[in-house]
Amino acid sequence: MDFIYERIEKEEDVEYFDSLKFENILGKKLEPLWWVIDRDSDVFLFFYGGSAFGVPQKYGLCINKELVEVEALGRTKGERLESNLVVYWIINKIDIPVSLIKKGYVEEDIVYIIEKAFTAFGLLGINRKDIMDVSIEITVSPKIIKRDSEKEEYKDPLKKKDDPFNGTLFIVMMISLIVGQIISSKCNLELSESKRLNYLFALVSALIYWAIYYIIKKIKIKI
Protein backbone atom coordinates (compact mmCIF):
# COMPACT_ATOMS: atom_id res chain seq x y z
CA MET A 1 0.00 0.00 0.00
CA ASP A 2 1.21 3.49 -0.87
CA PHE A 3 0.70 5.68 2.21
CA ILE A 4 1.60 9.38 2.27
CA TYR A 5 2.13 11.28 5.53
CA GLU A 6 0.72 14.80 5.29
CA ARG A 7 -1.15 17.56 7.05
CA ILE A 8 -4.89 17.63 6.39
CA GLU A 9 -5.19 21.08 4.89
CA LYS A 10 -6.56 20.80 1.37
CA GLU A 11 -10.17 21.96 1.28
CA GLU A 12 -11.46 18.70 -0.19
CA ASP A 13 -9.51 16.67 2.41
CA VAL A 14 -10.86 18.72 5.31
CA GLU A 15 -14.41 18.37 3.99
CA TYR A 16 -13.97 14.62 3.59
CA PHE A 17 -12.54 14.19 7.08
CA ASP A 18 -15.31 16.32 8.64
CA SER A 19 -17.99 14.38 6.76
CA LEU A 20 -17.04 11.23 8.67
CA LYS A 21 -17.99 12.97 11.96
CA PHE A 22 -15.15 11.61 14.08
CA GLU A 23 -15.20 12.50 17.77
CA ASN A 24 -12.33 12.72 20.27
CA ILE A 25 -12.26 10.88 23.59
CA LEU A 26 -14.36 13.67 25.13
CA GLY A 27 -17.09 13.25 22.53
CA LYS A 28 -16.29 16.51 20.75
CA LYS A 29 -15.76 17.00 17.02
CA LEU A 30 -12.29 15.91 16.01
CA GLU A 31 -10.34 18.55 14.15
CA PRO A 32 -8.35 17.36 11.13
CA LEU A 33 -4.58 17.60 11.71
CA TRP A 34 -2.32 14.92 10.23
CA TRP A 35 -2.85 11.56 8.59
CA VAL A 36 -1.18 8.91 6.50
CA ILE A 37 -3.41 8.15 3.57
CA ASP A 38 -3.62 5.76 0.65
CA ARG A 39 -6.05 7.61 -1.58
CA ASP A 40 -6.40 4.81 -4.11
CA SER A 41 -7.59 2.40 -1.41
CA ASP A 42 -9.57 4.99 0.59
CA VAL A 43 -7.61 4.13 3.75
CA PHE A 44 -6.03 6.51 6.25
CA LEU A 45 -4.62 6.49 9.79
CA PHE A 46 -4.96 9.43 12.16
CA PHE A 47 -4.35 10.31 15.82
CA TYR A 48 -7.45 11.05 17.85
CA GLY A 49 -6.69 10.89 21.55
CA GLY A 50 -4.32 10.09 24.37
CA SER A 51 -1.67 11.56 26.60
CA ALA A 52 1.92 12.44 25.93
CA PHE A 53 4.22 10.18 23.95
CA GLY A 54 5.31 7.17 26.01
CA VAL A 55 1.82 6.15 27.20
CA PRO A 56 -0.91 4.45 25.16
CA GLN A 57 -2.49 6.68 22.54
CA LYS A 58 -5.59 6.20 20.44
CA TYR A 59 -5.51 6.07 16.65
CA GLY A 60 -8.19 5.58 14.07
CA LEU A 61 -7.73 3.52 10.94
CA CYS A 62 -10.45 4.45 8.46
CA ILE A 63 -11.08 1.81 5.79
CA ASN A 64 -13.83 2.55 3.29
CA LYS A 65 -15.42 4.91 5.82
CA GLU A 66 -15.38 2.23 8.56
CA LEU A 67 -13.41 3.06 11.71
CA VAL A 68 -10.97 0.57 13.23
CA GLU A 69 -9.95 1.75 16.70
CA VAL A 70 -6.30 1.17 17.58
CA GLU A 71 -4.43 1.77 20.83
CA ALA A 72 -0.65 2.02 20.62
CA LEU A 73 2.31 2.65 22.86
CA GLY A 74 5.21 4.49 21.21
CA ARG A 75 8.87 4.63 22.15
CA THR A 76 11.94 6.06 20.45
CA LYS A 77 15.66 5.38 20.31
CA GLY A 78 18.32 7.66 18.90
CA GLU A 79 18.08 11.27 17.76
CA ARG A 80 16.48 12.83 14.73
CA LEU A 81 19.29 15.34 14.30
CA GLU A 82 21.82 12.52 14.24
CA SER A 83 19.78 10.66 11.62
CA ASN A 84 19.52 7.53 13.77
CA LEU A 85 16.02 7.96 15.19
CA VAL A 86 14.09 4.68 15.48
CA VAL A 87 10.41 4.55 16.49
CA TYR A 88 8.92 1.50 18.19
CA TRP A 89 5.15 1.02 18.15
CA ILE A 90 3.49 -1.55 20.40
CA ILE A 91 -0.13 -2.16 19.33
CA ASN A 92 -2.16 -3.33 22.31
CA LYS A 93 -5.73 -2.88 21.09
CA ILE A 94 -7.46 -3.39 17.74
CA ASP A 95 -11.25 -3.05 17.60
CA ILE A 96 -12.70 -3.92 14.20
CA PRO A 97 -16.34 -3.10 13.42
CA VAL A 98 -18.33 -6.11 12.26
CA SER A 99 -19.60 -4.01 9.35
CA LEU A 100 -16.07 -4.03 7.91
CA ILE A 101 -15.95 -7.82 8.11
CA LYS A 102 -19.25 -7.91 6.23
CA LYS A 103 -17.60 -5.92 3.44
CA GLY A 104 -15.19 -8.80 2.86
CA TYR A 105 -12.18 -7.82 4.97
CA VAL A 106 -10.53 -10.41 7.21
CA GLU A 107 -8.49 -9.79 10.34
CA GLU A 108 -5.21 -10.58 8.61
CA ASP A 109 -5.90 -7.92 5.97
CA ILE A 110 -6.57 -5.27 8.62
CA VAL A 111 -3.50 -6.16 10.69
CA TYR A 112 -1.39 -5.87 7.52
CA ILE A 113 -2.87 -2.42 6.80
CA ILE A 114 -2.18 -1.31 10.39
CA GLU A 115 1.46 -2.31 10.09
CA LYS A 116 1.88 -0.48 6.81
CA ALA A 117 0.08 2.62 8.06
CA PHE A 118 2.09 2.95 11.29
CA THR A 119 5.32 2.36 9.39
CA ALA A 120 4.43 5.26 7.08
CA PHE A 121 3.17 7.37 9.97
CA GLY A 122 6.43 7.17 11.91
CA LEU A 123 5.90 9.67 14.72
CA LEU A 124 3.35 12.43 15.03
CA GLY A 125 4.85 15.82 14.17
CA ILE A 126 8.10 14.50 12.72
CA ASN A 127 8.80 14.25 9.03
CA ARG A 128 8.96 10.58 8.07
CA LYS A 129 12.22 11.26 6.19
CA ASP A 130 13.84 12.17 9.52
CA ILE A 131 13.11 8.69 10.96
CA MET A 132 15.60 5.97 10.18
CA ASP A 133 13.30 3.04 10.93
CA VAL A 134 9.91 2.13 12.41
CA SER A 135 9.32 -1.14 14.27
CA ILE A 136 5.80 -2.50 14.80
CA GLU A 137 4.87 -5.07 17.46
CA ILE A 138 1.28 -6.27 17.79
CA THR A 139 0.63 -7.86 21.18
CA VAL A 140 -3.12 -8.56 20.88
CA SER A 141 -5.54 -10.35 18.61
CA PRO A 142 -8.06 -8.12 16.84
CA LYS A 143 -11.48 -7.91 18.44
CA ILE A 144 -14.66 -7.79 16.35
CA ILE A 145 -17.13 -5.31 17.84
CA LYS A 146 -20.70 -4.25 17.12
CA ARG A 147 -21.63 -0.59 17.08
CA ASP A 148 -24.93 0.52 18.60
CA SER A 149 -26.46 0.77 15.14
CA GLU A 150 -25.48 -2.85 14.42
CA LYS A 151 -26.75 -4.47 17.61
CA GLU A 152 -30.32 -4.81 16.36
CA GLU A 153 -29.17 -6.44 13.14
CA TYR A 154 -26.90 -8.84 15.02
CA LYS A 155 -29.15 -9.60 17.98
CA ASP A 156 -29.11 -13.11 19.41
CA PRO A 157 -31.06 -15.27 16.93
CA LEU A 158 -32.21 -17.58 19.74
CA LYS A 159 -33.91 -14.92 21.84
CA LYS A 160 -37.62 -15.35 22.47
CA LYS A 161 -38.52 -12.22 20.50
CA ASP A 162 -37.00 -13.87 17.40
CA ASP A 163 -39.42 -16.79 17.70
CA PRO A 164 -40.32 -17.72 14.10
CA PHE A 165 -43.79 -18.77 15.28
CA ASN A 166 -44.41 -15.47 17.11
CA GLY A 167 -44.64 -17.05 20.56
CA THR A 168 -47.24 -19.71 19.72
CA LEU A 169 -45.74 -22.39 21.97
CA PHE A 170 -48.41 -21.74 24.59
CA ILE A 171 -51.15 -22.21 21.99
CA VAL A 172 -49.57 -25.46 20.79
CA MET A 173 -49.41 -26.75 24.37
CA MET A 174 -53.08 -25.89 24.97
CA ILE A 175 -54.14 -27.63 21.77
CA SER A 176 -52.21 -30.74 22.76
CA LEU A 177 -53.93 -30.76 26.17
CA ILE A 178 -57.36 -30.45 24.55
CA VAL A 179 -56.56 -33.31 22.17
CA GLY A 180 -55.40 -35.37 25.16
CA GLN A 181 -58.66 -34.63 27.00
CA ILE A 182 -60.75 -35.71 23.98
CA ILE A 183 -58.82 -38.97 23.61
CA SER A 184 -59.09 -39.65 27.36
CA SER A 185 -62.86 -39.14 27.37
CA LYS A 186 -63.42 -41.35 24.33
CA CYS A 187 -61.24 -44.11 25.73
CA ASN A 188 -62.77 -43.82 29.22
CA LEU A 189 -59.33 -43.51 30.84
CA GLU A 190 -58.97 -43.09 34.58
CA LEU A 191 -57.95 -39.68 35.96
CA SER A 192 -54.32 -40.67 36.59
CA GLU A 193 -53.99 -42.18 33.13
CA SER A 194 -55.64 -39.13 31.59
CA LYS A 195 -53.14 -36.82 33.30
CA ARG A 196 -50.21 -38.91 32.12
CA LEU A 197 -51.55 -38.81 28.56
CA ASN A 198 -51.96 -35.04 28.73
CA TYR A 199 -48.41 -34.60 30.00
CA LEU A 200 -47.12 -36.87 27.23
CA PHE A 201 -48.95 -34.91 24.54
CA ALA A 202 -47.66 -31.62 25.95
CA LEU A 203 -44.08 -32.90 26.10
CA VAL A 204 -44.12 -34.32 22.59
CA SER A 205 -45.66 -31.16 21.12
CA ALA A 206 -43.07 -28.97 22.89
CA LEU A 207 -40.19 -31.11 21.61
CA ILE A 208 -41.50 -31.01 18.05
CA TYR A 209 -42.05 -27.25 18.31
CA TRP A 210 -38.51 -26.50 19.49
CA ALA A 211 -36.97 -28.91 17.01
CA ILE A 212 -38.65 -27.05 14.14
CA TYR A 213 -37.71 -23.73 15.79
CA TYR A 214 -33.98 -24.50 15.89
CA ILE A 215 -33.96 -25.89 12.36
CA ILE A 216 -35.52 -22.67 11.05
CA LYS A 217 -33.05 -20.51 13.04
CA LYS A 218 -30.07 -22.47 11.72
CA ILE A 219 -31.30 -21.99 8.17
CA LYS A 220 -31.76 -18.23 8.76
CA ILE A 221 -28.26 -17.88 10.25
CA LYS A 222 -26.68 -19.60 7.23
CA ILE A 223 -28.60 -17.37 4.86
SS summary, helix count: 6
What is the number of beta strands? 8
Rg over CA atoms: 29 Å
Low-confidence stretches: 152-165
| Cα end-to-end separation | 34 Å
- Main beta sheet: 8 strands, mixed
Shape: elongated
- Which percent range fits the helix content? 25-40%
Structural class: alpha+beta
The H-and-E topology, N to C, reads as: EHEEEEEHHEEHHH
Beta-strand content estimate? 25-35%
Q: What is the averaged pLDDT score?
A: 79
Q: What is this structure, in a nutshell?
A:
The protein is an alpha+beta fold and 223 residues long. The protein contains 6 helices and 8 strands, in the order βαβββββααββααα.
Explain this structure.
By secondary structure, this protein is of the alpha+beta class. 37% of the residues lie in helices and 26% in strands. The chain is built from six helices and eight strands; from the N terminus they run E-H-E-E-E-E-E-H-H-E-E-H-H-H. It has helices spanning 11-19, 98-102, 107-121, 148-151, 169-186, 191-222, and strands spanning 4-7, 34-38, 43-50, 57-63, 66-77, 86-97, 133-138, 143-145. Strands 1, 2, 3, 4, 5, 6, 7 and 8 form an eight-stranded mixed β-sheet that branches. A hairpin with an 8-residue loop joins strand 5 and strand 6. The longest helix has 32 residues, at 191-222. The two termini are 34 Å apart. The model is unreliable at 152-165 (pLDDT under 50).
